[in-house]
Amino acid sequence: MEATYLKYLLQFKRPSGTSRGVLLDKETFILTISKDGRKGVGECAVFRGLSFDDRPDYEEKLKWLCENIDQDPSFLKEELKEFPSIWFGYEQAVLNLKYGGSLYFPSEFTEGQSAITINGLIWMGEVGYMEEQIQDKLEKGFHCIKLKIGVDWKSEHVILQKLREKFSKDQLELRVDANGGFSKDEAVIVLQQLADLHIHSIEQPIKAGNWNDMAELCANTPTPIALDEELIGIIDLEEKKKLLEKIQPQYIILKPALVGGFSGSDEWISLAEDQNIDWWITSALESNIGLNAIAQYTFTKKSPMPQGLGTGALFVNNFESDLELRNELLWFKT
After folding, report:
1. Do 228 and 313 have their domain in common?
2. pTM for the full predicted model
3. Of 26, 137, 240, 255, which residue is the catalytic one?
4. What is the pLDDT of residues 140-157, one digit of tens each?
5. Ranges for the Mandelate racemase/muconate lactonizing enzyme C-terminal domain (predicted)?
6. Of 26, 148, 240, 241, catalytic
7. Residue 122's domain spans which residues?
């Protein structure tokens, strides 16, 4: 086998706001593995400022993988355990090499017979911009909307109140993602305010790494809490188990590029289900290459909840997509 990689910079159509700042572009790396005239493509979707493997020797490790591509996969996995997004790209490329075309996980989804229900994502910004996005999602038929919060909670709270006045919890499921934007004391107040509005869940109300505080919040919360960033950088299986036992969240959210690819996600899912913790899968600003692979994987996991998958529409220079959004359903174009 031979392997090469290409660095690629995705440009946002519009600056996208999170509690960590405004994003203008997103760096990624496309890995290609070739064998006997066939090729497999995967995306090593590093997320600068968030990925556990956002480090100076990232590209050096990618070169190492290309030079050692014929090594045993278990050896490669061990060597890449601190580079989850590179392992994620490797898993994709190997699967694509096996199945060809743009297939990673052949299923009824890739045959165009079934779809995945997704939530509509609302990016942070001026109140008018957020309301404009919400209106667009509602017109497109979304029944589950996720809002980024934690920058200007007073304004964000008003938006949620207005939404709830128009739509009951049976008509519209509302999720929020704080990206660690609140202190513990703030979070206690916000969790009650969210409960009053029948919010489905809040992702990462406080910064990751504060296990004791998060455990206390999860034990007493009136609004279900989902761990997101909390999972990043936890590599060891026993440590993963320890985290879930300690915090006992209501949900965990899996971003394959950040938690060790599909095999890493499988580990988390297995541990969560052992402890009766629910989960769903989200993308993390991958290009259409990584997004396609995540969507195919997500379908095979058969979660009944709306998933947090993007649509590839954020970037001006994305690759051609195999996915198509019809209302709130993500389909594979056959």
Report:
1. yes
2. 0.94
3. 255
4. 999 999 998 988 899 999
5. 127-224
6. 148
7. 108-332
